[in-house]
Amino acid sequence: MANSATYTGITPDLYNNLKGKLGAAGIELAGNSGRVSKQGVTADYAYEENSQTLQINNVQVSFPASMMFSPDKIIQKIDEAVRSAGGQVA
Fold it and tell me: pTM of the predicted model, to two decimals?
């Protein structure tokens, strides 16, 4: 079961676009690093502008989100958002 992912080719503009896409899904990324927690889903994130990478780590899913999602499913949703924004899954 995956609970982390690395994304490459994440330019500052793409990161801002991605923040908007994830924000629309209820996942608010504030700044370049931190921890998100929303309706039973928690994860750590770190964006490194110089290397143009985004790390998502420690994805955990508890109730009520666990009724519909697993960490794998959350990573898959983030993968889709990154790809649609123009980034790559490493």
Answer: 0.86
Candidates 4, 5, 30; CA nearest to 15 is 30
Distance of CA 3 to the CA centre of its chain: 11
- Phi and psi at residue 10, in whole multiples of 5°? -95, 90
Token pair 């780590």 is at which residue?
Answer: 57
As given in the structure block, the two tokens for residue 66 are 């666990």
Q: Which domains does the chain have, with CATH numbers?
A: 5-89 (3.30.310)
Which residues lie below 8 Å from residue 66, measured CB to CB, with a gap of 6+?
40
How large is the average pLDDT for residues 46-70? 92
Residue labelled with tokens 């889709």: 80
Calculate mean pLDDT across residues 26-42: 88
Quote the CA–CA distance of 78 and 23 in Å, as a whole number. 11
